[in-house]
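tool_call predict_complex ligand=nicotinamide-adenine-dinucleotide
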Amino acid sequence: MPDFQRVLVTGGAGLIGSSLVEHLVDQGCDVVVVDDFSRGRAENLAAVSDHIEVREGDLEDPGFTSQALGDPVDAVYHLASRAFGVAYSQGRHVSILHHNEAITHNLLTSLAKQPPQWLMVTSSSCVYPDDGPDIIPEMPLFTREPEAVNWGYGWAKRLLELKSELFARETDTSLTIARPFNIFGERYRWAGNFSQAIPMLVKRVMDGEDPVIVWGSGGQRRSYIHARDCARMMHALVAAGCDDGAVNLGTEKTVSMLDLVARIAQAAARDPKIETDPSKPEGRFTKSAEMTRFEGLVPDFDA
Ligand SMILES: NC(=O)c1ccc[n+]([C@@H]2O[C@H](COP(=O)([O-])OP(=O)(O)OC[C@H]3O[C@@H](n4cnc5c(N)ncnc54)[C@H](O)[C@@H]3O)[C@@H](O)[C@H]2O)c1
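tool_result ok
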């Protein structure tokens, strides 16, 4: 297992990043968090605030990025990205691509001056095309278009993967590429109508909406894991020395959107009618993670 003392986490105040920071502090690392707090929150890091250094600023700003990443670290976990729910992504593909591309460009340009031993970058299952298998293996990219409802975001993640691969080869840096599927957690920051599916549905149920409207047919199926597990899986991949291509992070188990709302309603002791709006996009019908690769790399992972 690589032995890192000083670790930098971009997006470390966010949903997944804050759990990763806690986990790294637990492992005895000195952690530097870089975040603009556009989506992350200081309270997510309250439990470890005495053990970390926070550098607040926007990674789309080259000056800030070069300063924030200016001193040597052993490993960089890159999670910062501009991402919202499908209602936001629609019609904003180009701006999402531009924002995320700027972050990638600034990050890699700055790291090139002083490459870390290890770089972990966070891609996404949105890199996969809509017409692939239901249980998605780590398919090669650039053959078809990424997921249509997240087209700009999917391309941004594809480019992040490609550029990071080239960077790693040129600078002799070890590279882990994580492709998380759908992640949820109580630290998700509410983004109004642009929120992701679980927080959106929880809010509708808790607001007493009746009926609760589910986008699309409602039969579409997603696989969810908690942000804490995703963070542990990211760290486990690096600890296992995985530096040979992308790895899915998720589960093969899926739940339909209609079932998901029913479970949320049951947990909240509410009983709303549940209806669908087929005029709204639902994305690919089934999105489930083929996990053989992760299981082979980290056979003793405590799920
Ligand atoms: N949540 C999911 O379902 C999911 C699925 C696949 C991939 N991902 C990826 O995982 C990573 C973490 O996602 P998350 O769910 O924790 O989201 P998040 O929005 O909670 O975390 C992203 C963090 O990055 C910060 N950030 C955003 N833009 C920044 C910028 N320009 N400069 C500095 N900081 C910036 C935000 O403030 C936030 O703390 C992202 O790269 C995301 O694309 C998430």
